[in-house]
Design brief:
Largest sheet: 8 strands, antiparallel
Number of domains: 3
Radius of gyration: 25 Å
Number of strands: 27
CATH topology of the largest domain: Glutamine Phosphoribosylpyrophosphate, subunit 1, domain 1
CATH superfamily of the largest domain: Aminohydrolase, N-terminal nucleophile (Ntn) domain
Bound molecules: 5-amino-5-deoxy-1-O-phosphono-D-mannitol
Shape: globular
Strand content: 15-25%
């Protein structure tokens, strides 16, 4: 949800900024822009659309500068246009913003009453205009920043240039991510680690309320009392390759292939002597015992992982679990006490709705546990306990490997909770752990059917609508499979419990409408087969995804995609089974010529409500 980058040092800033924006483009791609600090003042250039449009505009020449800020936008206030693109400038100030000024109408009115004129429809322009006013008054950037932010209700990460201070960048954040990259003779600010990786792996997580002042040689962090802070310097262990395509056409395809390794890295550190053990996460048995119920709160793909988590925990530990949409959670006055465990799931750790849900759960005194991929993200920092998934950077907007590792953590949790609740004995837990450790290999084997998936995709790609059906754990998978297809190929798609279709939706099944049936659960197989027969009888095109030895009557399906024979236990089938669904969506989108990694209207990290 908008990407910010800033650079000050000895290099040509324009190149660093463009490279940084390229690495952040997954956060939004409605427009892009940069401001460069020069001795003659601030030079700004911006363009609607992809970064390529900005590059084109800059190709006619830019002033020499070794300090600047850049932005890639996911539009919230004001349509994607040149004028609404960031940076926004006023007088001596130019800034880039990620977040939302909730009271911008009020601020805009106040400024207009003072005679100010607005060029854009953005909320951000109120910040830059107030900041310029206060800068004229105080001549002190930090004081001006503090006075301005005191007026603002909402969320922000800001990188700011002042025309009379070339070489200096100021940065501040609230509820939107921002890091400071600490280099050698050069320093950066960025929304996310990939933007700083070509220059440094050392970074500071900017605390809320702190203001950072960067020059090429120094980074100073001022706390709200104006005192200099001594921040902790962290080290990103991602290599640059992890954030690059590495020979693949798309990040999504690469990330699908990375799933076995991501699973392995997430699972194995939590298995000690053949048993689940969360010592590395500093989670002891007391934390995982004696609660009344579990609420899993998340958005999108992370929520789908949560649905699988619910099945696993309820089945193995016999503890009641509900799965809540984070954007609804705090508005529905959830029944939540300190005896409850709230599990927050988020790849980015920055999703605004999920973060707000976490804060509500904490305010109600519930135990909070986050499952997060991005180290040091807001959710990871604010939750009482955190289990990091080790997917590495996920760049494609469509989540794939992050989903798999989230599900992997739910297996671990379900087994441990079941053992602590006395529902599973040690021997059964050990057997389950062994089965779990085989999953990365099962997923690896499943990747071998990529060509079949590509072929199967060609049969559904021209449909205007598709349906995914399944029962039990398979139903959870249908939600994720369906989301993957619709978000990147733009084929309208819906997921249903297989038995539910006939309660209304089956009226939409006509000749050739694709229905993708997931049938990995033997106990439910006959029922699912009956449901797909109902679809076939109405002319639907049925594609079944099932285990290697599942008997699917010839007249019940048009095509069958089979998991490898190593996948035998139904409880552990979801992770291999999601792979053909990811590949199906991927190849359908590629065949349709869609922009797979950057689907329209979307952004990777949704830091606004
Ligand atoms: O970063 P998060 O896991 O909190 O993001 C939540 C959703 O926005 C995300 O899972 C989204 O649904 C996927 N990118 C879709 O593929």
């Amino acid at each position: 949800m908008c990407g910010i980058v800033g650079y000050t040092g000895a290099r040509r800033a324009v190149e660093v900024l463009l490279e940084g924006l390229e690495n952040l483009e997954y956060r939004g791609y409605d427009s892009a822009g940069i401001s460069l600090a020069t001795q003659e003042g601030i030079y700004t250039q911006k363009a609607k659309g992809r970064l390529a449009n900005l590059r084109q505009r800059l190709s006619t020449g830019v002033p020499e500068s070794s300090c600047g800020i850049g932005h890639t936008r996911w539009a919230t206030h004001g349509e994607p246009s040149d004028i609404n693109s960031h940076p926004h400038c006023s007088g001596q100030v130019s800034l880039v913003h990620n977040g939302i000024v909730e009271n911008y109408m009020e601020l805009r009115r106040q400024l207009m009453d003072k005679g100010h004129v607005f060029l854009s429809q953005t909320d951000t322009e109120t910040i830059v205009q107030y900041l310029d006013l206060y800068y004229q008054q105080y001549k002190d950037p930090i004081q001006a920043i503090r006075q301005t932010l005191a007026l603002i209700r909402g969320t922000y990460a800001l990188a700011i240039l002042f025309a009379d201070r070339p070489g200096e960048i100021y940065a501040v954040r609230k509820d939107s991510p921002l890091i400071v990259g600490v280099g050698n003779g050069e320093n950066l600010v960025a929304s996310d680690i990939p933007a700083i990786l070509p220059y440094t792996r050392d970074y500071i997580l900017l605390e809320e309320g702190d203001v950072a002042k960067l020059t090429g040689d120094t980074v100073e962090i001022y706390d709200p009392d104006g005192k200099l802070d001594l921040p902790t310097i962290l080290h990103a262990d991602w290599d640059i390759g992890a954030a690059q395509k590495g020979g693949y056409d798309h990040f999504m395809r690469k990330e699908i292939d990375e799933q076995p390794r991501a699973l392995e890295s997430t699972l194995s550190p939590r298995i000690v002597n053949g048993m689940v053990d969360f010592s590395i996460d500093h989670i002891d048995d007391a934390f995982l015992s004696d609660f009344r119920s579990v609420q899993i709160v998340a958005c999108g793909t992370a929520m789908h992982a949560g649905h699988i988590g619910r099945h696993l925990i309820e089945k193995l530990a016999r503890i009641p679990v509900s799965v809540e949409v984070a954007s609804e959670y705090r508005y529905c006055d959830p029944i939540l006490e300190k005896e409850d465990l709230v599990i927050i799931v988020s790849q980015s750790g920055e999703t605004a709705d999920t973060l707000a849900a976490l804060r509500l759960a904490k305010a109600r005194g519930a135990r909070t546990l986050a499952i997060v991929n991005v180290v040091g993200s807001s959710i990871a920092r604010e939750a009482e306990k955190v289990i990091y998934t080790h997917a590495g950077p996920e760049i494609a907007v469509a989540s794939t490997k992050a989903f798999s590792v989230q599900v992997g953590v739910f297996y671990l949790l379900a087994i441990r909770l079941a053992q602590l609740a006395g529902q599973l004995d040690a021997k059964t837990c050990k057997d389950m752990v062994q089965a779990l450790l085989r999953i990365p290999n099962d997923v690896q084997q499943t990747l071998q059917i990529a060509a079949d998936c590509a072929d199967a995709a060609s049969a559904i790609k021209d449909a205007s609508s598709a349906f995914y059906v399944g029962r039990g754990l398979d139903h959870c998978l249908t939600m994720e499979g369906s989301l993957k297809l619709k978000e990147i190929s733009y084929i309208h798609s819906e997921a249903y419990a297989a038995g539910e279709l006939k309660h209304g939706t089956i009226s939409l099944i006509t000749d050739g409408v694709p229905v993708i049936a997931i049938a990995t659960q033997d106990a439910l197989l006959e029922k699912t087969i009956s449901n797909i027969r109902e679809v076939k009888a109405r002319g639907g095109y049925v594609l079944v995804i099932c285990k290697a030895n599942t008997v699917v009557p010839e007249d019940a399906a048009d095509r069958v995609l089979r998991l490898p024979s190593s996948v035998t236990q139904d409880l552990f089938a979801p992770l291999p089974a999601i792979v053909p669904m990811q590949l199906l969506a991927y190849y359908a989108a590629v065949q349709l010529g869609c922009d797979v990694d950057k689907p329209r209207n979307l952004a990777k990290s949704v830091t606004v409500e």
